[in-house]
Backbone:
């Protein structure tokens, strides 16, 4: 039976126009009765009364921002139900078995995980939101930040452990040391694990500082060792122990082009360009052509007893020889001679 009620006016209405007499996210309960949002009357059990309005408990709690576990009964009715359940637990094996299962779930944490999974993607009730806000207000900003950091690090380590186990390693450090030592990049490892390409680069120092420090020389700096891992074996087959020595010999001494070096090593031209940049080897454009041109000019100068081609051409022009006469004398095209003389036509 409803308790005597004082009918205050409606305090609001839902989006569908339904008026309500109790604020959203609140449940008014006293010793003998609880108040219905829909009509404002008081009942020992609002849950039973909802049939009058054509509502059910789940829809009622959802519409008025109440938690799923919120009681819809008076305090006296709640105590009576608790006493009755205690008696049934003592007498009924099925109730007792169910209670033991629930206790086991709660103790192991399985109940919390199941609740979190069930609530994922569901809008938080207003009642719960207000409780959360009140709880957070009692915690300092610093404590909240520290707790958030701990939780974030724990999630990162769980992800790292999963990646390591899927790759057959005991820890993320073992995986990273082995693969980076073989020439792989942190971005490559992250992509293989289905993570963002910068995941290991950003988080390895947090989840495994020792491993991050150990591989630092291999993955950072102007000349990361891992970048030469793919070239070292090929350079060794050519008789060199160091990639830098090989590049300087081929390009600066033998005047081989970047394309020629790439062909010899069996790698792409950009790979050779990057290796030369790492080892400080200056790139000469058209190295082979320039070398042949220098040898050609030196041969002409030597044939006529001069130190360089420019001296030969200056001497011939100073006595009035035309470019055609000079070209006939040395056997080289006149246009080629003029381009290298530095003299006016």
Residues:
């Amino acid at each position: 039976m409803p308790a005597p009620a004082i009918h205050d006016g409606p305090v609001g209405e839902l989006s569908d126009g339904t008026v309500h007499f109790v604020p959203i996210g609140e449940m008014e309960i006293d010793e003998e009765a609880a108040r219905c949002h829909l009509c404002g009357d008081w009942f020992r059990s609002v849950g039973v009364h909802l049939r009058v309005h054509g509502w059910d408990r789940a829809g009622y709690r959802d519409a008025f921002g109440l938690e799923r576990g919120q009681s819809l009964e008076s305090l006296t009715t709640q105590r009576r139900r608790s006493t009755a359940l205690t008696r049934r637990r003592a007498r009924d094996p099925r109730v007792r078995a169910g209670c033991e299962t629930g206790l086991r779930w709660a103790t192991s944490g399985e109940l919390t995980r199941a609740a979190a999974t069930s609530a994922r993607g569901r809008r938080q009730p207003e009642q719960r939101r207000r409780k959360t806000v009140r709880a957070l207000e009692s915690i300092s900003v610093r404590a909240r930040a520290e707790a958030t950091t701990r939780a974030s690090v724990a999630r990162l380590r769980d992800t790292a452990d999963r990646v390591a186990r899927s790759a057959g390693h005991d820890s993320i450090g073992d995986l990273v040391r082995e693969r980076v030592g073989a020439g792989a990049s942190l971005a490559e490892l992250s992509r293989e694990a289905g993570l963002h390409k910068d995941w290991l680069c950003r988080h390895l120092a947090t989840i495994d500082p020792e491993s991050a420090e150990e591989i630092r020389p291999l993955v950072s700096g102007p000349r990361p060792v891992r970048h030469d891992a793919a070239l070292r074996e090929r350079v060794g087959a050519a008789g060199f122990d160091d990639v830098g020595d090989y590049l300087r010999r081929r390009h600066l001494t033998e005047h081989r082009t970047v394309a020629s070096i790439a062909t010899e090593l069996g790698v792409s031209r950009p790979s050779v360009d990057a290796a030369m940049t790492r080892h400080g080897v200056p790139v000469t454009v058209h190295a082979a052509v320039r070398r042949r041109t220098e040898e050609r000019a030196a041969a002409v100068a030597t044939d006529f007893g001069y130190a360089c081609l420019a001296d030969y051409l200056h001497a011939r022009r100073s006595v009035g020889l035309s470019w055609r006469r000079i070209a006939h004398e040395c056997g080289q095209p006149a246009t080629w001679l003029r381009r290298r003389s530095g003299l006016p036509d």
Residues 304-341 form one domain.
